[in-house]
Amino acid sequence: MSNGSLYLAVVPAFNESATIEAVIDALRKYAPKFDTLVVDDGSTDETDVLACRSGAKVLKLPFNVGIGGAVQTGFVYAREHGYDFLAQVDGDGQHDSAELERLVATMELESVDVVCGSRFLTDDHRYPAPISRRTGIHIFAFLLSRIVGTRVSDPTSGFRLYNRRAIELFARDYPHDYPEVEAVLILHHHRLRMREIPVRMFARGGGTSSISTGKSAYYMIKVLLALFVGLGRRPAMLASTDRAPVSAQQGV
Amino acid sequence: MQARSQLVAIVGAAMLLLTVLEMVRRRRLMERYALLWLLSAGVLLTLGIWSGALAKISHAIGVIYPPNALFFIGIGFILLLLLHFSSAVSRLSDQSEMLAQRQALLDERLRRQEQLIADSGPEDGSETKTSDLARMPAD
């Protein structure tokens, strides 16, 4: 509340009753200037009740629409209620809300539109993920880095801070499956600037990931299709002189 | 004759493939629904070009004239696509039913709330405007 800006933390949650209260408590403790909005993506457990009791605002979707649709609900809410900044924090306790202040500080310092917390920029590799998942992440990271023209180390990270411009953009148009990956491409197409900073992440606190190994192969194919088709979707104009020629060269 | 039918198959499959890709690019088709289309078009195109494989397949399934095997495979994909869409339509109608129920419940809740405001309104001068507004949708 330093300069009267409004901050919203959006927590997409699907059957996260084991961790949701801890996530909301941590947000209140470590990021007090953020209002908390839980988007319950049609959970069948008492996620929404627990979130409500912990003092968060809760939007309960009547059925499961998938992570992309759930997060976009948060963007629409932020737009309608005039929030200036939106942070996305996962409901499974993976993200450390104490790091949110650093995302905010980076955004102010570098005046970028999106700040993304990356697991892979530190030397401290404590991110425990199955090798199949990590391979997928690195393939996306490699492709996106080449397309965008700057290094993207962790394109699937959902720990991000968006400013008003990005909120307006994604309230209109946000991808569906593995949305974080495609979102980077959409940002690039609209010439919004993204910056990554290293963050710590925890192993899941409980519950099960919404993406099983079999499904993640299917998602990978879908996202790859989206990426390749997206290449021709809205070509970035040549405006920034240092970066654009590289991306134009490699994008074709 | 054989060459001409092969050409028709190749052109047809290639056009299907390009149309699907273009629709995804213009956001007229979601990736979710495009994958099966792309698979069908891809397989038909491959078999159109690689006639040796088509001849082998037609021999294996007991079809004498290879282009007929292409029809056979094409119909297989059409059935698969229809089944895929039937399941998608089932899911969508299930969801729209839920939405309608949800909307009816919200409507009832809102009307009850408006009634409460209307009942307690006249005591407070500032409330009259709200209760007037509240009565409007009920008529």
Task: List its salient traits.
heterodimer, A: 252 residues, alpha/beta, Spore Coat Polysaccharide Biosynthesis Protein SpsA, Chain A, seven-stranded mixed sheet, 7 strands, 43% helix, 14% strand, globular, B: 139 residues, mainly alpha, 5 helices, 0% strand, elongated
What does this structure look like?
The complex is a heterodimer of chains A (252) and B (139). Chain A has a single domain, classed as Alpha-Beta Complex (Spore Coat Polysaccharide Biosynthesis Protein SpsA, Chain A). Chain A has a 7-stranded mixed β-sheet, with helices on both faces. Chain A has helices at residues 20-30, 47-53, 67-80, 100-110, 131-148, 164-172, 179-189, 213-231, 244-251; strands spanning 7-13, 34-40, 57-60, 85-88, 114-118, 160-162, 194-198. In chain A, helix 5 packs parallel to helix 8. Chain A is an alpha/beta fold. Helix content of chain A is 43%, strand content 14%. The model of chain A is unreliable at 235-252 (pLDDT under 50). Chain A is globular, with a radius of gyration of 17 Å. In chain A, 42% of the residues are buried. In chain A, helix 1 (20-30) links the parallel strand 1 (7-13) and strand 2 (34-40). Chain B has 139 residues and is mostly helical. Chain B has one domain (2-138). Chain B contains 5 helices and no strands. Chain B is elongated and about 90 Å long. The chains are: A alpha/beta (252), B mainly alpha (139). The interface between A and B is medium-sized, with 13 and 14 residues.
